[in-house]
Structure formats: structure tokens, C-alpha cells
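Forwarding the complex inputs:
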Amino acid sequence: MEVARLNKEIKELRAEFVDTRSISMKMKLESTVKKNVEVVGLKPSETPPQVIKVISKKR
Amino acid sequence: MAVAQKNITNRLYFVFGFIAILFIAVLVSVVNIQFRDGERYRELSKQLTVRNDTIFANRGSVFSSDGSLLATSMSQYEIRMDAYTVKSEVFEKNIRGLASELSKMLGNSTSHWETRIKKARNKKNRYLFIARRLGYNDYMKIKSFPIFNLGMYKGGFIAEQSTVRAHPLGKVAERTIGYDNYRGLVGVEGAYKDYLKGEYGWRKKQKIAKGQWKPINDNNEKEPVDGKDIITTIDVNIQDIAHHSLLRQLEYYSADHGCVVVMEAKTGDVKAISNLGRTSDGKYFEKRNYAVYESQEPGSAFKLMALVAALEAKVIDTSTMVDTGKGRYRMYGRYINDSKRGGYGEISAARALEVSSNIGFARLVDENFKNKPEKFIGILNRMHLNSKLGLPIKGEGAPVIPGPKHSLWSKNALPSISYGYNLKLTPLQTLTFYNAIANNGKMVKPKFVKEIKSRDKSIEFFETEVIDDKICSEATVKKVREVLKNVVKRGTAKKLYSENFSMAGKTGTARTEYGNYEEWLKDKRYVSSFTGYFPAENPKYSCMVVIHKPHVQKGFYGADVSGPVFKDIAQKIYTSNHVVNSINNVTPISDEIKRNFNSFNVISEKEFNSIPNVKGMALMDAIPFLENLDLKVEYSGNGKVKKQSISVGEKIKKGAVIKLTLG
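Prediction (whole assembly, two chains):
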């Protein structure tokens, strides 16, 4: 009985995990994000971010 | 009297005999059942009261290289309602609430749901369909609706769970991820089914009542072993870009179908693969794995192979000149055309590739190999172009490269092959060759799966399989890489050129279904492709885009139709990797800055018991200064502080708000 109950719980938790994960994954996709921010007027950059590394001389 | 007595005795004997025979028959039967058939009956009885119960193993999941789920088994729910079991006062009170929640979640109007459920109740329907294929979260939500939240008996809520194979990313890369069911063994799921499946377990159960079974032992006779997880080489982000970019081009050109594959040059890891086919209503979906199965005439994409072969044979160099004339040239009774009206005139072999001159290639190859065609074909074959890649995914198309003894051979075969006709390759086979050029001549096999895992433990790791360490000399690689770079810089693909990032590749615009030439002329059909790699120096990825039968009025050239997909992917990868600019310390040190800095230090290091004067200070100095005194700062305007709301010298109250006006 206990085993059956736990098994059912595992199944439910697994289902919850997978379902939530697939929702979050879809939201994360660039094409989804792109669509959602288009209304605000944002679009992906055409140039990469630049990291400015300052090499300072030791005093 | 005596006669009557004898009659009775006779009858008695008769009855006795009859009983005796009956008894013997019963005895024989008992012995038979007990001993002769005993084994069978005992077995039967066991079967009826004890059974082996299969415990299904969870099938493994398929992951992308960065750990996103591509395919997994999950629970799905079908929701039904016993509309009759609900008590009437509960029903009347909550039916509107339930109907409005259902309409919000599943569409249709509130009144639609209300009448539907009421109707079912009148008809005493105990199994009214509500919704199917709900995920867990939706299931939990629907369970909390009015009436339904009373449960099964009072609320009539019926949920039927089933396990299905789910693809969290939807139809993306569906043909490559594949499936393993009644429709066959497709893609990765089909190829690696033995790993995914796991092993079923079983346990003994005994019948305790009709339809009820209980386990005999505490432990399972055999524990189920869950399937292993498969980590593919797919990168979800690149896949997403590739998929949507291909879809956009297919839709714009109303093309029949297309595919795109992105491969990592060094490892052969397939980072993205998308195959989209058009349905009768103009929508696109993953119909077949075109990249893997569809062997076709590659058209101009094959000029690279021809050039490499000719360079390897040392019969020409990239600077060898060839006269392409006025764009129309007769060879063995057949005309060969170039796409530019008026022709390219006399050009070098390198330029012939840049502008994709059919005449240039036909002449270069025919004039140098017509007496020894087997040599040219031999080099192509040595570069593995005539053999399958041997992919784990089923259904790879076989390449065809006819040699002099082949049924497809003729005098025209050699020049045709030089510009990509009269032979067949699949997109993936073509890409594998380009990838080898990008990888300095080392040909690696496209790889779809990188690792097999069980929970977090690695079971098997797939190394890159090398088909050939060197398909051609380094000098040749260097030469053709320069030419491919120029294709984008100043050749057929110059529309794609970008100052910011470099790409190299070859366009292809091949005729297809031209068996009946007259008919073809009326309804021109092309296959537009772009194959290449990026960046042009030290390539990281190779990529091939093939689009079949774009709408000719909208365009059909490889650079217009397929090129943009390639560029999108190259650009995406370029922009998502940051550029590091190192600069030496260039902090300007001026006396004024030093003075200001020092004077600020002098003020800020003083201890204040009353509100200080911040007038004339810059806001960025004033804020930390005041906040260090436990004040809250609000401000308006720009520039330096003009006014402060608490005057100088007042006592500091912790947490008090000081308003600054700038100007």
C-alpha cells in the first residue's frame, strides 16, 4: 500500500516536473522571447557584446 | 413365490453391479485427475490465483547537449465528468462558476459549458467529456475548479491518466529525435531504443477477490530497470534559430520543403537539424528527415568537390584560366549555360567557382580528364563521396557517383558531374565534405548522440569518428578556403557579406525534375542551397541549407533563398559570443580630478552630527554621502545640487527623507 502510494506520488511529481519544465523551456526560447519583446520595440543585437578588459599596470 | 424372490435378487444384483461400475468409474477418474492430469490442473489453479505482474520500466529521456529535455515520458490526463452524481443544491449553486472557469481555460463561452453540462445532467450522463491531453499543471488547475474540487464521488470529477511520449519543445527536430512506436523506428529514439527502453520487472501477485490482486512477497521478483537517458548533440538555441529561420524562408518562398543542418567543424556534432515539408494547406511540419534520406543532384555545391579533385590531380591551379565565352557553350552536342547573360569571358578557375560558372567547370574538368575520367572519379571516391556515412539513424540515402562503366555514364557525364549533375548526394553527405574542408581536410562523421547516461552516471561516451584524417593535401585546403571566402566577399553570395563577421561557402541553384525539359521550361523548379562554414578563418561550424522548389517568381537563387538562413545562424552564433577588447590602463589622470577627489574625501571623512551642506555637489557624490548618514535621498532634475529640503545644521534623524533639487 505504502509502495503504491509512493509510486503514485513519484509519478505525479515527475509529471509536474516535466510539465513545468517544458513550459519554462518554451518561454526561454529565443523565438518566444523575441516575439514577446517585439511589442516594446526590442530586437536582438546585430553585434556581439564587447568585453572591455583594462589591463592596469601595477603601481 | 420363489419366482418372485429370484426376480428381486436378480434386480438387486443388477443395481449392485451398476453401482459398482459407477464407483470404479469415479475411482478411475479421480486417479486420472490426481495423477495423470494432476500436473496440468495444479498449474492451472496457480495461474488463476497467482500471476506475474509486469512492472513497466520508465523509458529514458532524450536531452539536448545543454540539458534541455527533447523527449520524455510523462503523464497526460483526460478529464470527464459524472454530471449526475453531483447533489442538486451544490450543482445549482456552482455550475456558473465551473462553466466560467472552464471557458477561461478551454475556450468556448460560459453559457456553452453551462448548457452542455446541464444537458448531460438531464440525460444522466455519467461520463461527459471535458478535455483531453492535459499536462499536469492544467490537471491540477482543473481539479481545483468549483464542483470538481469536491472530488470524484461528490464532484463527479473523473481524471484518466495515461503515459505518453512528450516533446517539450514541440515539433522542433521531430524527425531527428524520432519515435519508437507502431509507426516504426525513427531518428535517435529508433536508433538507440535498446538503451532507452530499460528492462521490465515483475512480481508475483495472488488473487484475493474478484479483480483484486495482492503481491505475495515484499520484494519484486525482478526489479524494473529504468531506461538510460540519451544526451544528443543538439543545441537548443541554435536549433531554435535554425528552425524559425528556415520556416520563415519556406513560407516566404512558398517552397515545397527544406532542411538545415549545423555541424561543429572539429567534432562533427550536429548542433541543429531541421526538416520542414509543406502540407496541402500551406503549413510546414517535420515531414521526413530530408537531410538524411534525400539523395539528389547537389548542383553547384558540388563544384567545390570538382575543384578539390582537379587540384589534387595537379592538372590545374586556382589561377588556371578558362574561357567561359558568352555564357553559352556547346559540348558533345549539348548546350551548357551560365546564369549571367553575356557570360563571364576568360576567368580563372578560382573566379569560376566564385561566380559559379558551369561552362568554366565543364571545360576545366572535361579538357583535363576526358581521356582518363576514371582518375577524376577515382579521386572523388577516394574522398568518400560515393559511400554512405553509416549513420545510426535509419534511412540514409545512398550516394551515386557514376564511373565510366556505370549505366549513367556518357560523354556528357564528366562535364555534368563537374557542376553537380548526373550524380546524387544527400545534404548531410555534402555537408560532411564541406565540414572536412573547414576542419583542415579531416573528415569526421556527423554525430547526433554524445553520451548515454543513467541518472547522473555516464554509461557510454561517444567519441568523434574520423572517416579520413586527410581527404586532400593541406595546400588544396588552403586554396579552396580562400576561394570559398571570396564567394561571400565578391561572388554569388555577396549579398550575404557582412563586415562584422566572416563566412565562407558556396551557393547552389540546381534544376530539379527536368526529365521532361519542355514541361520544365513552363514550370521551372529549382533546389536552392547554401553550404559553408564560419568564421572563414578557423571555422567553428559548418552549415547547409537546402530549399526545394521555391516559388520562382519570388526568387530561386541559392544566395536569396537559402543564404539568409545560413547568415542568421552565423550571425546568431557570432553575436552570442562576446568579443574581448583588451586595453592598457588609460585612466586619464588630471589635476582637476585629483583635486575634486581629494576635496570629496575631506568632506566625507569628517563626522557630521548635523545636516551638512551638499549644495554645489554632484548627485553621485551627494547620494552616498547622505546615505552614509542614514538619510534617504530623493531628487529631481539634472546637474548639481541647488536646493536641499533639510537645511544645514539641523539635527540628523535616522531614516529621514531629504529632497534634493538639481539644476
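Residues 603-662 of chain B form a domain with the Trypsin Inhibitor V; Chain A fold (CATH 3.30.10.20).
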